[in-house]
Amino acid sequence: MTLGDWAVLKRVLARSVVSCLFATLALLDATPVAGQGGRMLADWQRDLRDPSPTIRAGAAQALAAFDQRAVPALTGALGDSEDKVRVSAAEALVKIGPGSVVPSMIEALKSTDVATRANAAVVLGAFGPPAKSAVPALARALKDANPRVRELAGQALDRIGSTWPSQPVTFPLNCH
Questions:
Q1: DSSP 102
Q2: Of 18, 42, 99, 122, whose CB is crowded by the most CB atoms within 10 A?
Q3: Percent of the chain beyond pLDDT 70?
Q4: Would the CA dihedral through 101, 103, 106, 112 be positive or negative?
Q5: What residues contact residue 78 under an 8 Å CB cut-off, 6+ apart?
């Protein structure tokens, strides 16, 4: 083998290593992660449709372990017919954190469902100042047709705009 052959072989191997690395990272990202009890995200999402409110509430709590992948399902659960499911979903969203949740809550404030709008305001308020990007949407919610949505939007704005040291979130949240 000549020196030029070694250089070509080295470039081919380097590309192969990089390709393998990217393929591995893509597989890791696509691989379902097991949460509580070894159950997968899809298992818990399916449980959100169970007839039992207790199972739905437990599923909402467990979904917090899946971080941003669970946000759409948890956002949908904010409008559940049962209070304990709505509270569990809101608390799980708060546990996930503002990064991926705030944009979803801004969208949820546009929902036709009153409970979803009200609970989106509760979640945003729980985040406090890190949810400042939601201020325009919450300001619009101050004109909501539902008085409870208006009240919760005002409380969220107060908490987001507070200059006092942030108070820890207390559970259960004051959901609608």
A1: H
A2: 122
A3: 71
A4: negative
A5: 86, 89, 90, 93, 108, 115, 116, 119, 120, 123
Where do we find the tokens 């949505």?
Answer: 149
What is the chain's percent helix, strand, coil content, to nearest 5? 75, 0, 25
CATH number of the structural domain 33-161: 1.25.10.10
Amino acid identity for residue 72 in this structure: P
| Cα–Cα distance measured from residue 53 to residue 16, given in angstroms and rounded to the nearest whole number | 51
Residues 6+ apart with CB under 8 A from 74: 60, 63, 64, 89, 92, 93, 96
pLDDT in tens, 64-118: 999 999 999 999 999 999 999 999 999 999 999 999 999 999 999 999 999 999 9
Residue with token string 């954190």: 97
The DSSP symbol for 113 reads -
Q: How far apart are CA 127 and CA 35, in angstroms?
A: 24
For the chain, domain boundaries: 1-31, 33-161
Give the count of beta carbons closer than 10 Å to the beta carbon of residue 76.
Answer: 18
